[in-house]
Amino acid sequence: MKNISRLLLAVAGTFIFVGAHAADTATEVQRDTNQQTRIEQGLQNGSLTTKEAGRLEQDESRVDRAQANAERNGNLSPAEKTRIQRDQNQVSQAINRDETNGARGNPNSASSQRMQADVQRNVNQDQRIENGVKSGALTNREAGKLERGQAHDDHLQARAARNGHVGGGEQRHIQMAENHQSNRIYNKKHNDVVR
């Protein structure tokens, strides 16, 4: 009887441990979603220029790469979580600084509209990853691999907006990468690997 009780406690402890790591991953992805939403809103209300949004996307790319590296083994250590949160705090401060620096973007320009659409796609993809982690359809390791794809897409957006203008050809290139990432998210969520 004691052995069965110990076994049940060990199994329950494992589920709590795995659940806590999944919650950490979901929390970090939720923060990505929130920051991407802030960038999009800044573009929409003109408080961010396309060039500023591009720099912020480069910052987001670095955070996504850090998350991908941290989740490579399927676990997020306390030190990794602290480092990622510090990086995210820095991005949050950069968003705030750029939104309040007095530079005004034209939300109705074709370039801003393209950037807004691309950032909105980031928001959607981050939400899909977060929902997959929360539901158990994505393991932490899978979420980490998908964050690497998000980092790639963020980097493409940053590069396109570097000069303050996102052209139609640049957007098509970004959209192709986003479509590839969308398919990867779908495939990872619908494979037979579960948490």
Descriptive account of the structure:
The two termini are 29 Å apart. Helices cover 81% and strands 0% of the residues. Residues 14-21 have low confidence and may be disordered. With 195 residues, the protein is mainly alpha-helical. It has one domain (2-189). The protein is built from six helices and no strands.
Q: Any key phrases for this structure?
A:
single chain; 195 residues; globular; signal; Phage infection protein
Please provide the count of β strands: 0
By DSSP (H or I, 4+ residues per run), the number of helices equals 6
Largest sheet: none
Task: Provide the β-strand percentage band.
Answer: under 5%
What class, by secondary structure content? mainly alpha
Q: How would you state the average pLDDT, rounded?
A: 89
Outline, from the CA principal axes? Answer: globular
Radius of gyration: 19 Å
Number of domains: 1
What is the oligomeric state here? Answer: single chain
Give, in order, the helices and strands.
HHHHHH
Taking pLDDT < 50 over at least 5 consecutive residues as the criterion, the unreliable ranges are 14-21
Secondary structure: helix percent: over 70%
Q: What is the rounded distance between the termini?
A: 29 Å
